[in-house]
Amino acid sequence: MKKHIIFFAMALLACFPAIAQNNSDQKINKKNLVIKEWNTSAKGARTLDHTTIFSPEGRKIEETEYDSFGKQKWRKRFEYGSDGKVSLELLYNENNRLVNFKKFEFNEFGRKIIQYTYDPKGKLTSTKIYEYISEDA
User: Fold this and answer.
1) What is the per-residue pLDDT across 32-89, written as a single tens digit (0 to 9) for each?
2) What is the CATH T-level fold of the domain 26-129, as seen in this structure?
3) Is 114 helix (H, G, I), strand (E, B) or coil?
4) Could you tell me if 31 and 58 are in contact, meaning their C-beta atoms sit under 8 angstroms apart?
5) For 90-109, how does the pLDDT look when each residue is reduced to its tens digit (9 = 90+)?
6) Distance CA 86, CA 57 (A)
7) How confident is the model at residue 2, as a pLDDT?
8) Mean pLDDT score across all residues of the chain
9) CA 11, CA 52: separation in Å to the nearest integer?
10) Which of 45, 62, 98, 131 has a 20 to 30 A CA-CA distance from 6?
11) How confident is the model at residue 26 (pLDDT cuts 50, 70, 90)?
12) How far apart are CA 17 and CA 27, in angstroms?
């Protein structure tokens, strides 16, 4: 049994060399990148699970989640401010109708400090405050 497990692990690593490497120091070039995530059944049927699209600048501009039949569950679009930070996040439903949108404020260190969520008509529905507490003293 151990031989079968070891053989399977070796075969898996041979098929997917990225798994065998420690890529923690390497950055993926995200410029114009599209990442597609697929679910595969035991019988080999594939369905699209998730996509992420990056801009020519390497910023995430869209994410889409799909159900088990490959139909869109939701889609998020991201817009960026002149500082390079996400300034607006728009959430769409399965019919591509706007559900809500979020605006963000950042502190002088570039950390998110406030998130404002609005309904499709622009009415504020909630505010989230981010607090950063260091345990080092």
Assistant:
1) 999 999 999 999 999 999 999 999 999 999 999 999 889 999 999 999 999 999 999 9
2) Lipocalin (2.40.128)
3) strand
4) yes
5) 999 999 999 999 999 999 99
6) 13
7) 52
8) 86
9) 28
10) 45
11) confident
12) 16
Cα gap 100→60, rounded to integer Å: 19
Distance CA(33)–CA(27), nearest Å, equals 13
Nearest one of 80, 82, 79, 81 to 90, comparing CA atoms? 79
Burial category of 132 from C-beta neighbours within 10 Å (exposed 0-12, middle 13-18, buried 19 and up)? exposed
End-to-end CA distance of the chain: 51
DSSP per position, 20-46: HS--TTPPP--TT-EEEEEEE-TT--E
Annotated domain spans of the chain: 26-129
Structure tokens at 72: 């869109």
